[in-house]
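Q: Hi! First time doing this. I have a protein sequence and I read that you can turn it into a structure. Is that right? Here it is:
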Amino acid sequence: MPRKRWSALLLALLAAFVACAHEVVRLSEDPPSLEPPAAPIPLTVAVVVGSFDRTRLNADGVTALFAEELREARIFQGVMSPVPSGASPRWEIQLAGSDSVLEPNSNYWKSALTAALLPFAFFVSLQNDYTLELEALLLDERELIKSYTGKASIRHRYKRYANRVQMDAEGVEVVVRATTRQILAALAQDAAEIEWRNARDG
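A: Yes, that's right. Below is the predicted 3D structure, encoded as structure tokens:
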């Protein structure tokens, strides 16, 4: 076989190995189905950042994704995020998060093996478990009305040569969307109560 074909074949095999270098496995149950109210609650809610001190997450990124999902769910007539400077929205959803990573002891000796014997890097898999707990505080004029919590876990399975940045980003998106949908399903169930309070105090 000509050298160019060998080179092309080797590059194709390397690309295939890299493409299969990691996977994200859901460990939690699927989020409950979302049943939005017959008509959106006639109010605008602001989505703001709360405490993310106990996470390694980008709080602004999580808040933006939550606001996007909330808009698509059509639970509220309007969703404000980010909040313009000087605005004082009556209704707010304040997000807070905490997360954890569990690394099995086997990762250490597997890493040592693949570092010492490089060919094993293509066959030995490592893993870790990642859990996110997301809390959404529903506030009316800064008064806490109700808190909602979502929790989801995933498992990363990966090779030593995997793109860890890409892998972590994919895993975070999975758990953020899962916890967000848990919270939105609970919010939708409370739509009538929220609308009643808004009308009563409006």
